[in-house]
Design brief:
Elements lengths: L1 H9 L10 H8 L2 H10 L4 E2 H7 L5 H13 L3 E6 L5 E6 L1 H38 L1
Helix pairs in contact: 3-6
């Protein structure tokens, strides 16, 4: 507890190579993490439901993403003593705060994909001409 207080007093600078916030940015900047956080905005969900709701996300990667998000305090994992055991994931308060900013980012990507794709094609054509 004392260490956490010292770290807070020091302040953080994401431009500093040693800043621990960089690892958190790495976690939440991952496309799968963004999609999981956005999905959890609708409420708690079980592991397999998350897999079904996010096509292309493998079981292994989903497990890794959930562990990182839980470690960072962005989601909670609740285990229920049923047969078989039921596990549900939900946004924590911190995760809700972050997730409020994820939705607009995802909508921006969808709304601007045509322009982004056109820029990518134009860039690729310029690079081919340069070769």
């Amino acid at each position: 507890m004392e260490t956490a207080g010292k770290e807070q007093a020091m302040g953080y600078d994401v431009y500093n190579a040693d800043c621990p916030a960089r690892s958190v940015l790495d976690h939440v900047g991952d496309k799968w993490a963004l999609l999981v956080l956005h999905r959890l905005e609708r409420g708690s969900v079980r592991f397999n439901a998350l897999r079904r709701d996010i096509p292309g996300l493998s079981q292994k990667v989903l497990s890794q993403v959930l562990k990182r998000l839980e470690r960072d305090g962005l989601i909670t994992r609740s285990v229920f003593a049923t047969v078989p055991v039921t596990v549900e994931y939900a946004l924590s308060g911190l995760g809700e705060c972050l997730s409020a900013n994820v939705g607009p980012l995802l909508r921006w990507a969808e709304a601007n994909m045509g322009s982004i794709r056109a820029a990518q094609i134009a860039y690729d054509e310029r690079m081919e001409e340069a070769d």
